[in-house]
Amino acid sequence: MFGELLGDDPGAGFGAFGVVFGVVAVVIGLGFVAMIVTVAVRSARMAKRGQNPFTMQEDLAYQAMQSRTLAPERSLEQRLAELDDLHARGVISDEEHRAARAEALRG
Questions:
Q1: Whole-angstrom Cα distance, residue 19 to residue 15?
Q2: What is the CA radius of gyration of the chain?
Q3: Distance between CA atoms of 4 and 18, rounded to whole angstroms?
Q4: Helix, strand, coil percent content, the chain, rounded in steps of 5
């Protein structure tokens, strides 16, 4: 009896624990493999679309900062002054100027 507890048989006493430990180790290992495969597949898809998966967060942040959605709202007076300036410099035509002013005034 004491011989079994002291480990005379190297495999004795760890039967159920050994099996559970082995199963848990396999599940964790499969989880890591699944994560690696998922990252590789997503990276390949992004590369096919011309996106760099390693700089995607910075690219999105840059695009968000450049978008008009996040730009501070300009007052009506500022928008009309901008349109008048564009018209005076010849960037927009008379018709474009009238249409843009009408749109700005409509809100």
A1: 6
A2: 33
A3: 16
A4: 70, 0, 30
